[in-house]
Inverse folding.
C-alpha cells in the first residue's frame, strides 16, 4: 500500500495552534515595544527626564495583555457569528455592540493593571475624566477590533481555500437538472482553483461548525455553507441520520453503538472514528438499526 501524500493543509494542522498564537503574540509584543519607545521619546522631548521608561511600558504592556485575553474571545464570537460578503450588513449592528463591549473590557482591565503597577512604584495612576477617556479609547479600540476581525476572517478564508469548500449543485439555467437539486447525489468541491464532485454516499459523517457544516469525506473535511438542519432535510434519510445536535452519520459507516450511563451513547464507525450520540437522538438511532 502506497503512503498517502498529505496536503499542505494537513501538514499545517499540527502547527496551527502555535502559528496562530505566535502571530498574534508577535504582533502584540512588537506593537507594545514600539509604542513604548516612541511614546517615551515623544514625552521626553517636551519634558526631558521627567517621564521614566517604566510608565509608557506599563501603559502599552497593560493594553497588550488585555488584547491577548480578548482576541480568543473575539475569535470565538466570530466563529459563532461569521461575517461574509453576503451577510456583513446584517452582522454590522452585532459587531458594533461587540466592539463596545470589547472596548469596555479592554479599558477597565488595563486601568486595573495600571493602578496595580503604579502602586507597586509608590505612586497613583490617574486615568483622567472617564467619559472623555472612554470615548477616546473606543475610537482606538474600534479600529483594533475591526482589524482583528478582518485578519481572523481572511485567515479562515485562506484555510477554507486550502481545505476545500463544498457547495450544493445548482440547477442549470437552460436545461433540466440531471439529478434532484432538492436531494443531491453529489456536491461540488472547490479547492485551490480546482473543482471536483463528491458523491453524497462518500460522506462518512457531518459536523456543524457555526454557519458551516463540515462534510467528512475519505479523511478530509469540506465546509459547506449550511445549517445541520438545512442539510439534514436534503440528504437521503434512508442513508443519513442525525445522532446529535451537531452531528449526522452515514449509516453505512456505522460499526457499533456504545451506551453510556448518562443515557447518551458513542457511535463507532468502521474507520475507528468515535462520534457522540445524545439521548435525544439515541432512540431514533436504535429504531433505525432495528429496521435494518
Amino acid at each position: 500500500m502506497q503512503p498517502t501524500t498529505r496536503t499542505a493543509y494537513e501538514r499545517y494542522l499540527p502547527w496551527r495552534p502555535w502559528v496562530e498564537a505566535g502571530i498574534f503574540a508577535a504582533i502584540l509584543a512588537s506593537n507594545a515595544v514600539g509604542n513604548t519607545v516612541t511614546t517615551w521619546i515623544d514625552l521626553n522631548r517636551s519634558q526631558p527626564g521627567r517621564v521614566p521608561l517604566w510608565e509608557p511600558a506599563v501603559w502599552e504592556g497593560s493594553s497588550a495583555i488585555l488584547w491577548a485575553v480578548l482576541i480568543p474571545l473575539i475569535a470565538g464570537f466570530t466563529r459563532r457569528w461569521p461575517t461574509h460578503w453576503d451577510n456583513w450588513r446584517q452582522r454590522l449592528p452585532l459587531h458594533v455592540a461587540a466592539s463596545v463591549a470589547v472596548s469596555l473590557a479592554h479599558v477597565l482591565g488595563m486601568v486595573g493593571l495600571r493602578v496595580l503597577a503604579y502602586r507597586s512604584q509608590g505612586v497613583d495612576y490617574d486615568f483622567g475624566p472617564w467619559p472623555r477617556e472612554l470615548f477616546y479609547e473606543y475610537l482606538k479600540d474600534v479600529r483594533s477590533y475591526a482589524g482583528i476581525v478582518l485578519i481572523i476572517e481572511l485567515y479562515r478564508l485562506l484555510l477554507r481555500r486550502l481545505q476545500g469548500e463544498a457547495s450544493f449543485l445548482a440547477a442549470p439555467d437552460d436545461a433540466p437538472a440531471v439529478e434532484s437539486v432538492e436531494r443531491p447525489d453529489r456536491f461540488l468541491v472547490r479547492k485551490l482553483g480546482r473543482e471536483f464532485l463528491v458523491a453524497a454516499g462518500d460522506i462518512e459523517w457531518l459536523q456543524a461548525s457555526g454557519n458551516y457544516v463540515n462534510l467528512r469525506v475519505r479523511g478530509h473535511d469540506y465546509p459547506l455553507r449550511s445549517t445541520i438542519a438545512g442539510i439534514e432535510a436534503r440528504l437521503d434519510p434512508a442513508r443519513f441520520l442525525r445522532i446529535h445536535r451537531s452531528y449526522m452519520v452515514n449509516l453505512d459507516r456505522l460499526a457499533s453503538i456504545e451506551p453510556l450511563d448518562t443515557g447518551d451513547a458513542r457511535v463507532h464507525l468502521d474507520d475507528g472514528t468515535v462520534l457522540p450520540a445524545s439521548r435525544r437522538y439515541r432512540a431514533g438511532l436504535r429504531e433505525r438499526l432495528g429496521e435494518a
User: Anything to note?
Assistant: The longest strand covers residues 203-209. The first helix runs from residue 8 to 12.
